[in-house]
Amino acid sequence: MTSPSLKALVIGLVIRTPLIPLLVLASFVPGFWSVGNLRTLAESVSIDGIVVIGMTIVMIAGGFDLAVGSVLAMGGVAAIVLLPYGLLASIVGSAVFGGLAGLLSGGFVTRLRINPFIATLAVMVIVRGATLAYTDTRPVVGLDDTFLALGGGYPLPYAFIAMIIIALLGHVLLSWRAWGRHVYAVGADERAAAMSGLAVSPIKLQCYGLSGLLAGLAGFLLAARLGTGSPIVGDATPLTAAAAALIGGASLRGGQGSIPGAMAGLLFVGSLVNLMNLLGMPSYYQRMVIGTMLIALVVIDGVLLRLRQR
Question: What are the TM regions of this chain, as residue ranges (predicted)?
Answer without folding.
Answer: 6-33, 45-64, 76-104, 116-135, 155-174, 205-226, 259-279, 285-305
